[in-house]
Amino acid sequence: MSEFDIVGKSYPQIDGMQKAMGKTKFVTDLVLPGMLYGRTLRSPYPHAIIKNIDTSRAKALAGVKAVVTYADTPGIKFGPRSEDWTIFAGEKARFHGDEIAAVAAIDEDTAEEALELIEVEYEALPFVVDPLEAMQAEAPLVHDDKPGNIAAEFKVEAGDVDQAFKDSDIIYEDRYYLNQVYQAYMEPMATLADVDLSGRITMWTGTQIPNMMRMTYAKALGIAPDNIRVIVPDYGGAFGGKMENNIHLVAAVLAQKAQAPVKLVNTRYDDFIAGNPRVPMYIDIKLGATKEGLLTGKEVQVVGAAGARLVYAMVIVATACYRVDSLYRFQHVRSKGYTVYTNTVPTACFRGFGNSQMTFVLESALDMIADQLNLDPAELRIKNGIGPNETSIHGWKINSSGLKDCVTQATEKADWQEKRQKKEPLKGIGLSCCNHVSGNRPFAREFDGGAGIVRIGRDGRVTVYHGESDMGQGQKTTFAQIAAERLGVPLEMIHVADVDTDISPFGLGSFATRGTLMGGNGVLAAANDAFGQLAGVAAEMLEANPADIECRKGKFYAQGTPEKYLPFNEVAAQATFSRHGAPVVGTGFYEPPTVLPDPETKYGNISPAYPFACQIAEVEVDADTGQVTVTNFVGAHDVGRAINPMATEGQIRGGVTQGLGWTLMENMAYENGKIINADFVDYIVPSALDVPDIKPILVEPIEPNGPYGAKGIGEPALNPTMSAITNAIYDATGIRIKELPVSPEKILAELKKKGGM
Fold it and tell me: Which of 61, 259, 263, 517 is least enclosed, having the fewest CB within 10 Å?
């Protein structure tokens, strides 16, 4: 008999059939009686004074029920990290797409017509798009109170970096640029807001952080957090993009004004120009090593563009500065980061959260060092890779590390040695590693754990409540498996409820690869509590000791006597009757053994567990067109115990595909301060024809802090992809790519410099 019945087994998503049959109602599908449709008027200028707004013609249009501007809001400055937001632009518009006004009407066509009737008088101002230019003395200020457009600075230093470089046999220095890219989720941002007679607001919206969003928005609206309820139905993806955004607040203000429910759905164009795409970064790196390939010192400077307001860019820049320091045994590091305002769309979270940007730079630099030292790049990673039961330079306690196994298994699967030795013209193979977190204590500071509620009804039906929203990654299925395993029931007896801030535990949300570990531990704790209550009832019915009670495959029995059992539903019914109708409700929480980093030194243990990975890409380069084709891909990931191997492998395939798009084709292009490819005609994402055979490998060192030994997979699936591909391009051509995306034009230009190969 295997150790587990449910955990470690592959299952399709529990809501997969519902989605496949088109029966799932996403946010955009929701309808309430008397519902109105909202639309937002956005600034056509990247920077401008708003001299006057005339909404009279829009208000007079038949079918229009509300028109709102800055004057209809409390005018409170707010924001999740810095109070530089307002719901609508007041005196100035600070980016092309800034919210100027909004309307609510009886249908979408009327709402769109009303927008055209709003007259706004602007005075265009000088603007700045590039963060390096924004830091110059002569650059226009995005916010008058931020000299040099510096929104935030970050510094960390450990060891003696200058001496480390003196002791180095080789030093590599260069500048890299990571471009701005769009999350490209399936469903645009959308929200449905309603206001009851007491003034309490209910929002149905696809958000990763319903509870933290509620706190931020309460500040913006000048109301108590308890006067906002957030319900999270199924929604079509996020990848970090659906944290906070003004769309939800605009819908709320419209609902308040119209005294009716208002649904506001971004057009895809709106989503491009006013979403929260990835933070573009300039990264300077200096990396030292001995002739034996031991890393000595690392110094980086990161300059990241926040856009016109600070969302999470400062935290993302900080992450880029120092998270990779715990991938290898660094002893001497120095990092400086600048988060810079620009007259562009506000930037924020995207799968990888700054780690992906720095992983690209570090892993590119490592390959250059390996090349100069004539070392196998895989050997270089193994030699320096951090191992289990080590503490990194910043205090991260690595309980389990499968990094070495990831490299070993990936290189074996990819025939690494054979393919490197058997060189073919314009064909190459490249490798990249990464680390990540399973939770991030500094993000919320107060806590970073998880909680759960498990309710068992009279008929034995189990409902799981949690605070971490499912954006399509399969989190509901993972939580169901954890609960089913602990309770000893088949998976089909578990229902996982949508997040509702009135009912669900206060969860921080789905980010930082924290769902499986933090949320899963919370669900496990609640299931433990519920099981203990049922075991007491079963013990009375079986005339046994409660400590001896077990349940497996829906049957309660005393240890050693599985033939004498009680069905799960009978025990649940007895428990309900004995409590005069009250259901069994188990609650529990998980408090991770993390340490909030010191404000000055940044030393502390930010996560209870750390996933690792090694990815290998093979490419072919067309000398005539410059086209790069990824022909094969291997991704070995340390995930702890894989709760659902099929879902975990799916996450790897999805992350690699997303990274392939970023590397070879995706780029948000600006002209005159405006995004000029804000649609899927001009913004190119990978199709099925672009994706190679992706071979996932699950490396499963049991993590003592994870539920059933699990870690996480969401973000590490993407982090190393870009550098694995560009390292393969270097192997094929000798061209070091330092700026994404890798366009055919760039390749052709470099090939021409090298004499055409």
Answer: 259
Average pLDDT of the chain to the nearest whole number:
96
pLDDT of residue 445: 75
The kind and range of the H/E element at 452 are strand 450-456
Q: Which residues pair with 430 in a beta bridge?
A: 617
Query: One-letter amino acid identity for 551?
Result: C
Q: Tens digit of pLDDT for each residue in 193-249?
A: 999 999 999 999 999 999 999 999 999 999 999 999 999 999 999 999 999 899 999
Count of CB atoms within 10 A of residue 428's CB? 25
Give the residue from 391, 390, 508, 505 showing the smallest Cα distance to 455.
505
Neighbours of 143 (CB within 10 A): 16
Please report the beta strands in 548-623, taking only residues with DSSP state E, as ranges in sequence order: 549-552, 555-558, 565-567, 584-590, 612-621
Q: E strand or H helix at 526, and its extent? A: helix 520-542
Helices H / strands E in the chain, number of each: 20, 31
Question: What's the CATH fold of domain 281-441+599-753?
Answer: Aldehyde Oxidoreductase; domain 4 (3.30.365)
In the prediction, which pLDDT does 661 show? Answer: 98
Cα 131 to Cα 464: distance, rounded to the nearest angstrom: 45
- The yes-or-no verdict on residue 2 having pLDDT over 70 is no
- The torsion region of residue 525 among left (phi > 0), alpha (psi -120 to 50) and beta comes to alpha
- pLDDT at residue 757 is higher than 80: no
16-23+449-590 architecture in CATH?
A: 2-Layer Sandwich (3.30)
Residue 361's pLDDT is what? Answer: 98
Measured distance CA(418)–CA(431) in Å, rounded: 14
- How confident is residue 756, by pLDDT bands cut at 50, 70 and 90? low
Give the CA angle between residues 360, 207, 257 to the nearest 5°. 135
Instruction: Write out pLDDT tens, residues 27-83.
Output: 999 999 999 999 999 999 999 999 999 999 999 999 999 999 999 999 999 999 889
Q: Give the count of beta carbons closer than 10 Å to the beta carbon of residue 224.
A: 9
Q: Tokens 């989190």 — which residue?
A: 475
Separation between Cα atoms, residue 510 and residue 387, nearest integer Å? 27
Helix (H, G, I), strand (E, B), or coil: what is residue 599? coil
* DSSP-derived secondary structure for 620-642: EE-TTT--EEEEEEEEEEE-BS-
pLDDT tens readout for residues 329-356: 999 999 999 999 999 999 999 999 999 9
Confidence of residue 1 (pLDDT cuts 50, 70, 90): very low
109-147 pLDDT, tens digit each: 999 999 999 999 999 999 999 999 999 999 999 999 999
Q: Which segments of the chain belong to CATH 3.90.1170.50? A: 31-125+200-220+242-262
Structure tokens at 477: 């299925």
For helices 377-384 and 355-373, angle between their N-to-C axes, nearest 10 degrees: 120
SS3 percent helix, strand, coil of the chain, rounded to 5, is 30, 25, 40
Helix, strand, or coil (residue 591): coil
Q: Does domain 31-125+200-220+242-262 have CATH number 3.90.1170.50?
A: yes
DSSP result, 681-700? TTS----GGG--EEEEEEE-
Q: Which amino acid makes up residue 34?
A: G
The ranges of the chain annotated as CATH 3.30.365.10 are 16-23+449-590, 281-441+599-753
C-alpha distance from residue 208 to each of 232, 467, 512, 564 (Å): 9, 10, 11, 46
The CA-based diameter of the chain, rounded to the nearest angstrom, is 86
Q: Report the chain's C-alpha Rg in angstroms.
A: 27
SS3 for 246?
A: helix
d(CA 481, CA 7): 6
pLDDT at 667 > cutoff 90: yes
